[in-house]
Write a structure and sequence with these properties.
- It contains 14 helices and 15 strands.
- The protein has about 400 residues and is of the alpha/beta class.
- A 7-stranded parallel sheet has the order 3-2-1-6-7-8-9, with helices on both faces. Strands 12-11-10-13-14-15 form a 6-stranded parallel sheet, sandwiched between helices. Strands 4-5 form a two-stranded antiparallel sheet.
- Helix 1 crosses helix 14, helix 7 packs across helix 10 and helix 11 crosses helix 13.
- The two termini are about 35 Å apart.
């Protein structure tokens, strides 16, 4: 690796204390770059609950109008002072992790002074636009703004090849680089007592299988398929527990549906678990991670489960299932409740199979954040060299 120490702006529309896959990704980038390679500064909208003093590196906040959902701020990057602040920090590269407000912010910076810009496209934003934006005219404007933000980047990164379709839906058909995310949970041995603590806490008998879902409680993560498959398991006489770890905008509706279909005793909601070691105990205690989402572009939870040698059940052809071999490094099913139910029935009592596949996942699909950020940092230097060797005229975006 080139030993140049770079100063990098890591931008996203949400940062801690808002917790999701992208804010977790940003923290891992910032921690590792500042510890091993150069300097990383977080650039993100203001959050009234921010506790930025906790971090050993700079967090630069620009204005937000309000927050919604689970603390997601709506950034307002239009004041010229915000752009000149970035220019004055003398970054080598701007790396946005969201094609909305912060990417537009970096476009405004580039109108003053040109910096190389990378955009990582983490999320299938067409889902959010279609579900959250009521007006067709405003939807068109949202798509147009996001597309211009994507196209303005010098290089576009995705976390899986399957993200190509989402980019196409957004109107982008240009080149991209696949840059997988890592996992911040280490490969460690969880004691039997720690695993059993999950059963004691939730009153789960020793011989009852544990299914696990980890993620935001959004219907578009195919949570209804999980619940319907679990209803089929119950109707077939199978005793089990499904632990749902997370919170989200559809949490109330999901709990209501759980009660409606008679799964009150089988489904356990834990809310969000912020302690990473505690979360790893949940992964280790589970027999199977059930994650049929078509929404996620990479699925950090699949690698998190692999850190604990826990197998995952995924939808064949989904981005989360990319690189998974059915029955070898994970399990695959079709995108319907009956297929999900059938697969669980086939494998849930086969402890030897689950254990072998979990260990294979740990060996073959687990990527540490140390390795992932090392690869990204090496690519930073390629992007910077390419940018510096290319004449730049007037900025058009």
């Amino acid at each position: 690796m080139d030993n140049r120490k770079l100063k990098v702006a890591l931008g996203n529309d949400a940062w801690l204390p808002t917790i999701d896959g992208v804010s977790t990704t940003l923290k891992c980038y910032a921690d590792i770059i500042n510890n091993k390679y150069g300097e990383a500064v977080i650039v993100t909208p203001d959050n009234p609950n921010a506790e930025d003093y906790k971090f050993p590196y700079q967090v630069y906040r620009y204005k937000s109008l309000f927050t919604f959902g689970e603390g997601y701020p709506v950034g307002w990057p239009f004041k010229k002072q915000f752009s000149t602040d970035i220019v004055d920090m003398n970054f080598d590269l701007l790396h946005s992790h969201c094609p909305i407000a912060t990417s537009y912010y970096f476009r405004r910076v580039n109108r003053i002074k040109r910096f190389p810009v990378i955009l990582t496209y983490h999320t299938k934003f067409e889902y959010d636009i279609e579900t959250r934006v009521p007006s067709y005219a405003i939807k068109r404007r949202a798509y147009g703004m996001a597309l211009n933000n994507i196209k303005s980047a010098d290089e576009v990164w995705v976390t899986s090849k399957g993200t190509r379709e989402s980019l196409h839906n957004m109107g982008y058909d240009g080149d991209f680089v696949v840059m997988p995310n890592g996992c911040d949970l280490p490969i460690i041995s969880i004691s039997d007592n720690e695993r059993d603590s999950i059963r004691r806490k939730h009153g789960i008998p020793a011989d009852v299988p544990i299914l696990l879902f980890v993620g935001r409680l959004n219907w578009y993560k195919n949570i209804r398929l999980i619940l319907d498959a679990c209803r089929m398991l119950k109707n077939a006489g199978k005793d089990y527990r499904l632990i749902m770890v997370g919170m989200g905008p559809d949490e109330g509706a999901i709990k209501k549906y759980t009660r409606k279909i008679g799964l009150t005793n089988e489904v356990i909601f834990t809310d969000q678990i912020t302690d990473r070691h505690e979360l790893q105990i949940y992964y280790s205690a589970a027999d199977l991670l059930v994650f049929p989402s078509q929404f996620d572009t990479n699925g950090l939870v699949v690698r998190e489960a692999a850190a604990s040698a826990t197998s995952a059940l995924l939808v064949e052809g989904s981005c989360a299932a990319e690189g998974i071999v059915d029955g070898e490094t994970g399990f695959l099913c079709d995108e319907n409740a009956h297929s999900l139910y059938t697969k669980i029935q086939q494998i849930i009592d086969n402890k030897d199979l689950l254990g072998r596949v979990g260990l294979n996942a740990q060996s073959n699909i687990y990527i540490s954040w140390e390795d992932a950020v090392k690869t990204a940092y090496e690519r930073y230097q390629i992007v910077i060299d390419k940018f510096n060797s290319t004449p730049h005229g007037e900025y058009k975006y």
